[in-house]
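Reopening: structure tokens for the magnesium ion complex, inputs below.
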Amino acid sequence: MKIARVDVFAYDLHYLHGTYVMSGGRTVAGLSSTVVRVTADDGLTGWGEVCPLGPAYLPAFAEGARTALRELAPAVLGVDPTNLALVHRAMDAALSGHAYAKSPLDVACWDLLGRSTGYPIATLLGGRHHSRYPLYIAVPMGAPEEMADYVRARRAEGLHRFQLKIGGDPLADRDRVERVLAATDHTDVVIADANGGWTLGDAAVAVRALAPRPRLYLEQPCASLEECLQVRRFTTLPMVLDEIITDVPSLLRAAGAGAMEAVNLKIARVGGLTRAKLLRDLAQALGIAVTVEDMWGGDIVTAAISHLAASTRPESLLTTSFMNDWVREHVAGHAPRSSAGFGATPDAPGLGIEVDAGALGAPVFSVGDEPA
Ligand code: MG
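Re-run output (same inputs, fresh job):
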């Protein structure tokens, strides 16, 4: 099998709950997502998607993904898409870094590998541990009572895991956490995520004000590993690291320093399912839990998440998010679809979803030829 053609599409995703607010005044109402379709010489197709959370969240942005894909797509033409090792060698030879732009090509090739062998990706990622797992949803930063109201509304829908956006004034953040905790009970998990937005001083004030609770986690309080390690000195709250875990060396450095109990693993940030599997397996071997998700995205991103989550040990899976529940637009009929706060992974080969190419409009660009 050889890659005959790569099409790159763009479509807009809109946040279902108004405006998504993170630390540092970063807000999102709509985002431009990039979809990649890889067509093999036998006519089989695979799909991947990357949607950076705006240009100021990580060193990644929508037009950056597309510009990088103009370098990457010609380099994979003629490569066997079921040989992920060669796909990555070709991508790395064409463009250094830019892991997030390589992610949709990687996922599209996993989809093709699954479709050509008849296996769902979860099987190919090591095997399915569970068919159903609890989801979490992010709670946009706002007034404490607004955040508590949002949590009550989502609990009524069946969700019991929440990631609160904090990272502002440390005592206001303490109030946000307290109000949300008061709106939950022992069946809930609450993760307070500053997205690296606190200074070390703010973090010290905040964590000293927050009494440890059995079901409360702290996520990425400050921007650097060194600062997050300092924060550990002021609190016994279990820690999740997210933005700074980008590859194997950063995971091992943080694990070696005893920096965290869990890692938030975003598939595109680490370069696709191939590297996400490696990091997931390493984390599991080190006794570190994982949150399985992505920067943002729709149905295709969610399908990839679902296969990584299904192949992660239940005891290692802190949370998962079905990001297609957070947005209005759907390119695969809102599949996979959550139910009452739980996610499930498709059984069909590959990603196990059917993408409606017509919903995506004309490609932004294409390379290669339609197979004869
Ligand atoms: Mg996070």
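Residues 193, 195, 219-220, 242, 264 surround magnesium ion (CB under 6 Å). The domain at 3-118+356-368 is CATH 3.30.390.10 (Enolase-like; domain 1). Marking as resolved unless the reporter disagrees.
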